[in-house]
Amino acid sequence: MTADTAPSSPLVLGAMMFGTTIDETTSFALLDRFVERGGSWIDTADCYSFWASASGQGGDSERVIGRWLRARPGVRDRVRIATKLGAEPQWAGSWPDRRAGLSRRAVLEAFAGSLDRLGLDSVDMLWLHQEDRSTPIEETVDALAELTSAGRVRRVGASNHPAWRVERARAHARSVGSIPIDALQLNATYLRVRPGTRPPGVEHRFGVLSDEQRDFAEANGLDVWAYTPLLSGAYDNPGKQIPEVYDHPGNERRLAVLDEVAGELGATRGQTVLAWHVAHGVRPMLGGSKLEQLDAALDAVRLPLTGEQVARLDEPQ
């Protein structure tokens, strides 16, 4: 099967570190391989990656993607571009106290900047990166409505938002005849953190996919995208420890079943985790820096998990 006829992969390529810790040559190679193997969704943000950039502000990832798109005539028809806004520091060193936020002005200005860096006139998905309690969600939705009605944004999603605010946003969008939020992007993996804790790097109170958010998405037909599904390689890399927040008896049972199913599949733990996500209709996101990591993930999301294997993976609590 050629790249032109390959079915679209459910894997999302996360471009967070493109242009900072991942150089442009490597970024281009990852993007090329992703498309060659049937990948379509590429995810970035206006704030990526301010913590690793020389300026202390984001934009490098979008610029790299923009240069890649210009260097690959015709590839725009084969990929879907998703970007986020709302979390960019107002100035270098101001995060998290001073973020751009989700006011009408902030949304429109941030999105204009994203389009300029990407070299595009529209994107396929625009994410609200973090909730902004200082701005009524209705104001944010009205700003998004301006963008969707102008054809500059095809879909709208919410990352790191509680379900009730997403539902309020959806209700307001319907009331004004706009496109409602139809996707959630949250931290999700196979293991579960101890109650009252968050995984390393998740600083958002509602950043980890909960049973309520999962149920809300299923009941309303929302897509779910899972970031950091592989615990930054800790499932399989002996040099990395699984974070301490996952150390509890329930996860001992989950890891035992994960090892059983991985052995049956002839796959790694991480690949089995990705396949399990896909079996539940979740799009896993990969932010790796090596071609072999990308290839392994693209293989993983096509692993044929049986219903019995999924049930066994689901059972441990």
Oligomer: single chain
Classify the beta-strand content into a percent band: 5-15%
SSE string, helix = H, strand = E?
A: EHEHEHEHEHEHEHHEHH
Q: What's the alpha carbon Rg, rounded to whole Å? A: 19 Å
CATH architecture: Alpha-Beta Barrel
Q: Can you tell me the CATH superfamily?
A: NADP-dependent oxidoreductase domain
> What's the total number of strands?
8
- Please mark out the parts with pLDDT under 50 across 5 or more consecutive residues, or reply none: 1-6
Summarize it:
With 317 residues, this protein is α/β, with parallel strands linked by helices. It has helices at 24-36, 60-71, 104-118, 137-149, 163-175, 211-220, 249-265, 269-279, 291-300, 307-314; strands at residues 12-14, 41-43, 80-85, 125-128, 156-159, 183-187, 223-227, 282-286.
Describe this protein's structure:
This protein is of the alpha/beta class. The chain has one domain: NADP-dependent oxidoreductase domain (TIM Barrel), CATH 3.20.20.100. The protein has ten helices and eight strands. The chain has helices at residues 24-36, 60-71, 104-118, 137-149, 163-175, 211-220, 249-265, 269-279, 291-300, 307-314, and strands spanning 12-14, 41-43, 80-85, 125-128, 156-159, 183-187, 223-227, 282-286. An eight-stranded parallel β-barrel has the order 1-2-3-4-5-6-7-8. Helix 2 links the parallel strand 2 (41-43) and strand 3. Helix 7 (249-265) crosses helix 8 (269-279). The protein starts with 11 loop residues before the first strand and ends with a helix. Mean pLDDT is 96; it is low at 1-6.
